[in-house]
Amino acid sequence: MGPTVLFVHGSAADRTTWTIQVAGLRSKLRLITYDRRGTGASELPPGAAFFRIEQHADDAAALIETYAEGGPVLAVGSSFGAVVVLDLARRRPELLRGAMLLEPPLARNDTLPPIPEDFLARYDTLARERSGPGAAEFFLRSVLGDAAFERMPKRFQERSMALHAQIRQDIAALGAYPVRYAELATVQVPILLLGGDRSAPFYRHTLHALHDALGNARLEFLAGAGHMMHADVHRRFNQRLLEFLAEVSL
């Protein structure tokens, strides 16, 4: 069995978001996918409003220590999961041989709030007035764009919108996580920042800011891809993962 890759999913998703990667890569690599706390088969403890980014990163670290003999592994994070992987690279670099960050939804500098100031309030208002799935639709249209949301098969729309409680937890966690760009220069884990050329423009701004701040990062954009690039252009994505893994394994 080849090197180990840990996948960390984003919001409105669970470990099955990586199904195409598992199918295409499992013969070559050892793959770890899991449901983050509060999603899928992983429950949120009673009374917990949300888990901080750091707690999600600690969970990922525990998985590496338990199932990958302490690593190092390649960690791949999508959206919210990319923020988790970034925090892991910041605090537990010894566990990683490299990291792929797929459009982390962070502010592009430390003077901006981690999320738009009224975003969580708008989400909660919509949840009261239109129901939880209605609030989740607002979130999905905001992060994916209207066109990408409309292209989603109906069953995937409904499945994602049913995860409105998880989405709310993730929004709160992002709001409590300062990026501290000045500290990112100390992160020496090799990092591949990936964006889609069909994604919302704010992801591009953040990716460029992270590229400028990180100590050992490269930035690339995948043609024809949106925010869900690991599904949109899955063959090219899987190939780029294998290439990057080979680069950081030398």
List the helices and strands and how they pair.
Elements: E1 4-8, H1 19-25, E2 30-33, H2 53-67, E3 73-78, H3 80-91, E4 96-102, H4 119-130, H5 132-144, H6 146-151, H7 154-161, H8 164-175, E5 191-196, H9 201-213, E6 217-222, H10 229-232, H11 234-248
Parallel strand pairs: 1-2, 1-3, 3-4, 4-5, 5-6
Helix pairs in contact: 2-3, 4-5, 5-7, 5-8
Structure summarized in a few sentences:
The protein is of the alpha/beta class.
Textual characterization of the structure:
- The protein has 250 residues and is an alpha/beta fold.
- The protein has one domain (4-109, 179-248): 3-Layer(aba) Sandwich (Rossmann fold), CATH 3.40.50.
- Helix content is 47%, strand content 14%.
- It contains eleven helices and six strands.
- It has a six-stranded parallel beta sheet, with helices on both faces.
- Helix 2 (53-67) packs across helix 3 and helix 4 (119-130) packs across helix 5.
- The model has no long low-confidence stretch (mean pLDDT 93).
Largest sheet: 6 strands, parallel
Low-confidence stretches: none
Taking all Cα atoms into account, the compactness measure Rg is 17 Å
CATH class: Alpha Beta
Order of neighbouring strands in the sheet with most strands: 2-1-3-4-5-6
Topology as H/E string?
EHEHEHEHHHHHEHEHH
Number of domains: 1
CATH superfamily: Alpha/Beta hydrolase fold, catalytic domain
Q: Strand portion, in percent?
A: 5-15%
Overall geometric form: globular
Mean pLDDT: 93
Q: Approximately how much helix is present in the residues?
A: 40-55%
Helix and strand composition category: alpha/beta
CATH architecture: 3-Layer(aba) Sandwich
Kindly state the number of beta strands: 6
Instruction: Please tally the helical runs, counting DSSP H or I stretches of 4 or more residues.
Output: 11
What gap, in angstroms, lies between the N and C termini?
A: 17 Å
CATH fold-type name: Rossmann fold
